[in-house]
Amino acid sequence: YSAPWLDEVISALKQFTDAGCQVYFLAGNRDFALGQKFLKKFNGILLSDVETLSIASLKIRLEHGDLLCTDDVSYQKFRKVIRNPLLLGLLKKTPLSFRQKLASGFRKKSREANQVKSYEVMDVNQDAVKVALSNADLLIHGHTHRPKIHDVHGKPRIVLGDWREHEAQILEISENTAVSGCALKTWRY
Fold this sequence. Notes:
The protein is α/β, with parallel strands linked by helices. The chain has three domains: about 1-45, no CATH class; about 50-70 and about 125-189, Metallo-dependent phosphatases (Purple Acid Phosphatase, chain A, domain 2, 4-Layer Sandwich), CATH 3.60.21; about 75-115. About 35% of the residues lie in helices and about 20% in strands. It starts with a helix and ends with a strand.
């Protein structure tokens, strides 16, 4: 699949990686079907659902965050079905117009279902967070779209915001950054 807006993004990412930087991709709700074949266009690397990174002496757990929302049983069931490799393989063989229509229908149903779900059901389960942090110093995730740095028994859980047109919340971590120095910043472009 190719489109002018996508070609522009691929070109920019290719320039970025050609300059010696690396792009890592962690799939979310709407882009989980992208695979290494697509990322190869700009030398990106596909990450698994849960990754552990080491920066300086920090052990960081990175994930999309939807797997932490264990109380949202209907979403977890849907996720299991839609991410089945056999189903994904079949869907990739269908026309793009069909996939776009299907995705639009899923988004509509999701919005409708979320209107009647409680905040607690759609947020992370605290026991799942504790398990996720049991072997990490820091947990970074998105999915809930409620950016904030939480303290979980002395360990930070950083929730990233979503990307908006011309604005995103980002988290910058370097080898010189202590956990206490982590901050979410708004980036405008």
